[in-house]
Amino acid sequence: MALQAASLVSSAFSVRKDLQGKLNASSSPSLKESSLFGVSLSDQTKADFVSSSLRCKRGHNLRNKGATIRAQTIATSTPSVTPSSLDRKKTLRKGNVVVTGASSGLGLATAKALAETGKWHVIMACRDFLKAERAAKSAGMPKDSYTVMHLDLGSLDSVRQFVDNFRRAEMPLDVLVCNAAIYQPTASQPTYTAEGFELSVGTNHLGHFLLSRLLIDDLKNSDYPSKRLIIVGSITGNTNTLAGNVPPKANLGDLRGLASGLNGLNSSAMIDGGDFNGAKAYKDSKVCNMLTMQEFHRRFHEETGITFASLYPGCIATTGLFREHIPLFRSLFPPFQKYITKGYVSEAEAGKRLAQVVGDPNLTKSGVYWSWNKTSASFENQLSQEASDVEKARRVWEVSEKLVGLA
Ligand code: LMG
Ligand code: NDP
Ligand code: PMR
């Protein structure tokens, strides 16, 4: 608590110091070759090992024209920040970006990449304050480039407390990145959040759902030129890919488990009402993340101009995400991804990708699920049928609102 209070004070100072910062105007990657496995496979059967010439970073996949059109119905552009508009506003302040789970892996690498630009103040929203502080220090993040604030997504009270604390710090909120996640592939029994939701969906989806619903007002109030809400997704939740077809596959079914509260007592701990499986629960939670991003886009983009986005950053096979997997998996998985699937990316590279979605003036399109090809050029990827199901997105939203006490 004392540490948290101290961080609030220091953040108040750092924000004022940062008023001379300018908008991140990092250049976008050029059109390059696509990777074999990192990109989506077209629906069900046709392998979409699309060659580089068919994809550009704006995502026009000619072979998947129908699918691309479907994807674009949920995606509309906001005016991007051009160099000339930057010239007019030379004294643009530093952007404030909240990154959940910034104490390791992708979140830490993203925080570091953003801090290094000198254009962002990163609020590291973490459940382990000391771990986050140590991680920021050992990553070499400049002291005034970040503030650690406590957030445990496995407790809705903690989420509300975080929002209160953040507001007390009187920083504008310009970008929110919902990155934190847990993965329990070897759990034979479910465990639960403070409110009694199965832990993976409770943390990865419901905690972030409440957080972003509450913070949307703060984003609305920001005067920053490009406000964004980013929810990290994954290839393994998309059954239109090879990776998404490795069992157990994501499937939300008719949401009967979610609607009954995921508590494992009078209902199943799984969204679809089935038997508990930790790996499936994680993949289901990623589907919820990707559906939530699109539902946000449909409900709020036009009115607020906020850019909503999701992404698959690549397979970062070395992160803490696999901490609960068996040692054999942990040792074989990185070489498997590096040399066989070629889907592997380093934490640093993945951090740059997510930082791009946070600040690149070329990535202002809303409703998009970004991916990168082998040479790290971004493109609009296509979500699986379930992960782009409009009706399911609406129902997940409505049921989640009830579970987190918003309806
Ligand atoms: C479930 O098991 C668990 O039950 C569940 O609890 C949860 O953990 C879940 O998704 C998580 O997994 C799934 C099961 C896969 O997982 C495993 O058995 C472990 C797989 C380990 C993955 C790493 C394998 C590494 C093997 C290669 C060694 C690398 C060496 C690197 C050096 C390279 C040098 C060049 O279960 C299934 O997926 C079921 C279907 C199994 C199909 C198996 C097909 C094998 C295909 C292998 C590669 C495909 C790539 C093609 C190219 C190959 C060219 C050689
Ligand atoms: P890590 O385990 O390294 O990072 C996850 C972060 O989430 C950690 O900082 C962890 O905190 C935090 N976290 C976990 N539970 C909570 C909680 N209850 N409250 C607050 N924070 C919490 O994994 P990754 O960096 O790999 O994962 C980051 C994101 O990337 C996830 O959304 C994941 O789904 C996604 N992703 C990862 C891929 C990969 O290959 N690794 C591929 C595709 C997507 P602590 O440090 O305290 O444990
Ligand atoms: Mg996968 C073909 C490409 C590919 C890619 C890009 C991934 C990404 N995986 C691929 C293929 C395969 N995987 C194949 C062929 C197999 C069977 C051997 C396989 C297995 C596998 C396992 C057991 N893969 C896994 C696991 C995990 O436990 C990871 C997981 O599902 O976590 C939910 C995982 C992953 N594979 C990926 C990625 C990115 C993951 C990590 C997690 C995530 O989605 O966030």
List the helices and strands and how they pair.
Elements: H1 2-17, H2 65-73, H3 83-88, E1 95-100, H4 105-117, E2 120-126, H5 129-138, E3 146-150, H6 156-168, E4 175-178, H7 199-221, E5 228-232, H8 256-259, H9 278-304, E6 307-311, H10 327-341, H11 347-359, E7 368-372, E8 378-381, H12 390-403
Parallel strand pairs: 1-2, 1-4, 2-3, 4-5, 5-6, 6-7
Antiparallel strand pairs: 7-8
Helix pairs in contact: 4-11, 6-7, 7-9, 9-12
Q: Are there runs of 5+ residues with pLDDT below 50, and where?
A: 1-83
**Helix content range:** 40-55%
Query: Strands across the major sheet, in which order?
Result: 3-2-1-4-5-6-7-8
> What best-fitting shape do the alpha-carbon axes yield?
globular
Rg from alpha-carbon coordinates: 20 Å
The helix-strand sequence is HHHEHEHEHEHEHHEHHEEH
What's the tally of helices?
Answer: 12
How many individual β-strands?
8
- Main β sheet profile: 8 strands, mixed
Ends: how far apart?
31 Å
- The mean pLDDT is 83
Oligomer: single chain
Strand content: 5-15%
Bound molecules: 1,2-distearoyl-monogalactosyl-diglyceride, NADPH dihydro-nicotinamide-adenine-dinucleotide phosphate, Protochlorophyllide
